[in-house]
Predict the 3D structure of the following.
Amino acid sequence: MSRTLAPATSEAQRPAVWRRWAVRALVLIALLLVFALYSNPDFMVMLADQMWACF
């Protein structure tokens, strides 16, 4: 007797392809925004001043 096994995850349990792409796009946008902040010299000075104020 041969039985076919069901897949480990059903189609309903896997996230949709568009949802995975949307999450990846949002992560990329967030990383680009952080990079833009760090490339701004005024932001870097403010961040250094805030770090120095902690000590």
Summary: Residues 6 and 24 are 29 Å apart (CA to CA).
